[in-house]
Amino acid sequence: MMKKNMKKHSFIKRTVCIILIIGCIITGVYSYYGGLGTGKCANVNEFEKYAVTVEELSIPEQTKIVALGEATHGNKEFQQLKLDIFKIMVEDYGVRAFSLEGDYGGCEAVNRYIHGGDGTVKDAVSAIGFAIYQTEEMENLISWMREYNKSAAQGNDIRFYGFDMQRREYNYRYLLEAVKNGRMDTEELEKIWNQDKQEYTEGYTAEQREKIIEDVKREFEEKDTLQNASAVHLADVLLQNMELGKYIDDAGEINIHRDKMMAENIMWILKQEEARGNGRIFISGHNGHVKKSGNYDANNKVMGNLLADEIGNEYFVIGTDFYKTTCNLPVDENGKRKNHIFYSYDPMAKASKKSGFDISYLDFEKIPDSSELKKQVSECSWMGSLGEIYSALYRIFPRGYRVWASPAELYNAMIYVSDAHPIKVIED
After folding, report:
1. CATH fold of the domain at 44-159+283-420
2. Domain ranges for the chain
3. pLDDT at 308
4. How far apart are CA 137 and CA 193, in angstroms?
5. Among candidate residues 206, 159, 212, the one with its CA nearest the CA of residue 185
């Protein structure tokens, strides 16, 4: 009887161990892939028929704004694509303006550098701020622009803009410079800024600072020139930054207001370029901002949706995705970063990889309506989406780094990177 009980207990123990081992394997596979595999695959044969290399991409004639999205900020391929596609836009479509998801003033420092300004390319990249831009790929982009401008004919030079408003330093610096150059009174403007700390001086309310900047803006508006338009915009961006600061404890409200103001800034950039005789601009930001359809709530749309409402089919959006990414992401508030592996579950990205592409371009509008692929890009599917945040919960809830949507509703075309590699942030 005792032997039977021992055998029974031994059997139960082995069974439990096997179940636990299988459970651990399943859990490991799930957390690594974000599921028990890499998801569905679109029709490979049709994908091969309609997909091309990035070098072969084209845009519609009526396009005024070409937007390139990023599925992540932490992959070198998505940064390299900025240069690859911008070259095409410059050489084949007459685009002379590059605009980045960075603040206007910091990007103006880059603009001065690419027009022969002092300093190094590292200084220029540093002025943009954000760690995600402190990379070799961004240095290559800016160096190419500077080299291009050296031999560009008069009026054919490239300009570098920013359409964000999250930083203050360079916007204030260049506004003060414009005030001095305009021989205007600088006293009040100087009083509200601490040069040593590169922050607003204590002792002034937000309303007082706002009034001082608005007064400066008004003075420049009375002098209607292209040069003064830039000064007015510097003041506007500082005012936008103040507006954003009102929602510092509400991330949802920050996103809503930020996207509205970024859309306004892009339209301002387009108008500046049109005044110079250039009818197209190129912009780059996260997929979540540039997509042509999307909203935060019933009353508030994302930046790309606002732009699409403004100019309709003159807004052309190229989204991006990965099959697999090793993504560089921040892991704490001190700026420490680490590489993490994710899979998108995107059927198109999987088809791209199976087709043998390292990087492919798929224009949704060139796929026949009768094809199976057209149906697949029109249906909702999972797509990868990583910003500047990492959570361990992504391993349990992979929807945290994926978007469920119709690719064709969000974008006009998409670029798929089979194996995306991490950026390397350049240390000071």
Report:
1. EreA/ChaN-like  fold (3.40.1660)
2. 44-159+283-420
3. 97
4. 34
5. 212
